[in-house]
Design brief:
Number of helices: 22
Shape: globular
Largest sheet: 2 strands, antiparallel
Structural class: mainly alpha
Strand order of the largest sheet: 1-2
Helix content: over 70%
Radius of gyration: 22 Å
């Protein structure tokens, strides 16, 4: 069974979505419970990946290989290392949270809604485990479809505009990646194996072109400044579950692409263009932090904070030391928990008030004390408070940046102040003070289902903040191996 764990992680949620669709939205009770069962099964088949993973092994584990398109030497080739494996677990866990979050609030086409998330969960696992370049591209592009539908069908008033903008940005960016994949396929003598591409001897000029081709695609996904403008629109219009998956998982695909493609395939170009990447990352961290500070819409504020936090990730990648890259990976996982929790908290309030405007709230702690306590924890984690997961990754990246260049590290540290400013300023205005809106006075505190969702995420945030070793242990060998590979010139 262990030989097929990655296939199970991909296909259990995708195939499980079929009976959910067949049930139809009229049978809401069965749809919800079957969707939850499929999501839990999807998580259960991924847990042995962590238990059976050997952190001392260099290279891929749980490898699966079968002919896919023999005529073109394409393989159904899967495998994970310490870099990719944690994200499969994170994705499968977040899928359960999303199913629970849509339990009651999705009134129309609930079967299609749940099925879209289950299919997307399987496709995301495919992206993180694909070792064939064409297979990776198929999963990468296919994941756009369910997210496009989630935003376009169940989103807000401007959902069609946001969905089309999201789709066009990511699709157009991916076209250059396809060109790069074809070039690598031909240069490798007809091999689409990503690990074979890592060993290619490529000149500096082609490396730079390949790096730029991947950069355009992955930068849109992260999203990096200045190709970030689709994200706030997508978040504001998406339903709560869509925002959760978008922030917790989809943004990580671009960052993962840098580690799987850009750095190992074009190491010399990565070093050569590192100053540009660091400058773009610092711009996202600092400038977007100020943009978040002036937002009146809670969802838009958290969306901009995600761009700022993801700037830490790309900064960590391009300072080329283990503290930076491991810190960036920890930040990606932490951001998955914290951003999911922040959007779910905003969703809790929106379900009751049908408003995301900060000015419409105030004094929520008086009517929703349990919710206010959870929201406080997640806000502190978003601000990078020590003992929460939000602190660990950012602190590691800052340490790595200081080791690389003191002024780079100092510039990155500015965002800790900005993060605290925009997050706590929002929390103060929404939660504390006197009740000025009669609708706030009528709010009811979170129920058992909402309590369960937020409690599970709170445990993850605190556990990772207090004891990050289980996360850093699995990635250490893979990161060291990547750094050794990137340090060797391909010229």
């Amino acid at each position: 069974m262990s030989a097929y764990l990655l296939s199970l992680a991909i296909w259990v949620p995708i195939l499980g979505a079929i009976p959910v669709l067949l049930l139809g939205s009229e049978r809401r009770f069965l749809v919800r419970w079957l969707s939850l069962a499929v999501a839990i099964a999807g998580l259960l088949v991924t847990i042995p990946l962590y238990i059976g993973f050997d952190p001392a092994v260099v290279g891929m584990q749980f490898v699966e290989q079968a002919p896919w398109v023999p005529r073109f030497n394409l393989q159904y080739l899967l495998g994970v290392d310490g870099i990719s494996m944690p994200f499969i677990l994170l994705n499968s866990f977040i899928t359960i949270m999303v199913v629970l979050a849509g339990w009651e609030v999705i009134a129309t086409k609930q079967a299609q809604y749940m099925a879209a998330f289950l299919i997307m969960s399987g496709l995301m696992n495919g992206i993180f485990s694909a070792l064939d370049g064409v297979l990776f591209y198929v999963f990468f592009e296919a994941s756009l479809i369910p997210m496009y539908l989630i935003i376009g069908v169940w989103g807000g008033p401007n959902r069609v505009y946001a969905a089309v903008k999201f789709f066009l940005y990511t699709l157009l960016g991916s076209l250059l990646m396809l060109v790069a994949l074809i070039w690598l396929f031909l240069d490798a003598g007809g091999s689409a194996n990503i690990l074979d591409w890592h060993q290619l001897k490529i000149g500096m000029a082609p490396q730079i072109l390949i790096f730029i081709a991947f950069l355009v695609s992955f930068a849109v996904k992260v999203p990096m400044w200045p190709v970030h403008t689709w994200l706030p629109d997508a978040h504001v219009e998406a339903p709560t579950g869509g925002s959760v998956v978008l922030a917790a998982i989809a943004l990580k695909l671009g960052a993962y692409g840098f580690l799987r493609f850009s750095l190992p395939i074009a190491p010399d170009a990565s070093h050569y263009l590192a100053p540009v990447m660091i400058a773009l990352s610092l711009t996202a961290i600092i400038y977007i932090g100020f943009v978040a500070l002036v937002q009146a819409d809670m969802k838009k504020l958290v969306a901009y904070s995600s761009i700022s936090h993801m700037g830490f990730v790309t900064l960590g990648f391009f300072i080329f030391n283990s503290l930076g890259i491991e810190g960036a990976l920890v930040q990606m996982i932490s951001h998955g928990f914290v951003s999911a929790a922040m959007f779910l908290c905003i969703g809790v309030m929106y379900d009751r008030m049908h408003s995301r405007q900060i000015a419409d709230y105030g004094g929520v702690v008086n009517t929703m004390p349990k919710f206010a306590a959870f929201f406080m924890l997640f806000s502190m984690a978003n601000a990078g408070l020590p003992a929460t997961s939000g602190f660990v990754g950012e602190f590691m990246v800052i340490l790595g940046a200081v080791k690389f260049n003191f002024f780079t590290g100092a510039a990155a540290a500015v965002t800790l102040i900005l993060g605290a400013a925009y997050t706590l300023w929002m929390y103060k205005r929404v939660i504390f003070g006197e009740i000025t809106n009669p609708h706030v006075a009528e709010l009811t505190d979170i129920g058992r289902r909402e309590f369960l969702i937020l409690a599970l995420l709170a445990v993850c945030v605190l556990a990772m903040g207090l004891y990050p070793y289980p996360f850093t242990e699995v990635m250490h060998t893979s990161v060291d191996n990547l750094l050794k590979h990137v340090a060797v010139s391909k010229l």
